[in-house]
Design goal:
Mean pLDDT: 92
Radius of gyration: 16 Å
Distance between the termini: 43 Å
Number of helices: 6
Helix content: over 70%
Shape: globular
Strand content: under 5%
Low-confidence stretches: none
Length: 138
């Protein structure tokens, strides 16, 4: 969550207002998701993200952070376990694409790390589930 807040001035300095707003919205969304799990709250964040993105963006390429934030919102509020992490991978891919486009080397490294760690977690969960199935079947 703090990482998302630190990205706000970073993206502003890079001249990417949409990325900055999406980072701020992601931080608010993540903080809210810690305490609330509601499809209505998720819808609220999705509508705000899309609306801000539509108003502020001036290029089709600027929709990557909006898409990443929207996907992250849906996964955090509506999914759990492996499905949540798989969708978060897609959202991270959108943010990685955005960071490449705006030239954010730190963002590229950060999202690459998030993607690797999320992939490792997914693999561990899959192996753990297979082990549970094996124990149950014995």
């Amino acid at each position: 969550m703090l990482e998302q807040l630190f990205n706000l001035p970073h993206f502003l300095l890079l001249g990417s207002q949409v990325s900055a707003l999406s980072s701020l919205l992601s931080a608010c969304r993540t903080a809210t998701a810690i305490y609330v799990s509601s499809k209505y709250v998720a819808l609220f964040f999705v509508i705000i993200g899309i609306t801000f993105g539509y108003v502020v963006s001036d290029s089709i390429w600027q929709f990557f952070p909006i898409l990443g934030t929207t996907i992250g919102t849906i996964s955090l509020f509506l999914l759990k376990g492996i499905p949540m992490r798989l969708l978060m991978l897609v959202g991270s891919g959108c943010w990685l694409t955005n960071n490449i486009i705006v030239g954010s080397l730190g963002g590229i490294l950060l999202e690459s790390t998030v993607i690797v760690m999320n992939s490792i977690t997914i693999l561990r969960l899959v192996l753990q589930n297979k082990e549970k199935q094996r124990v149950i079947s014995e």
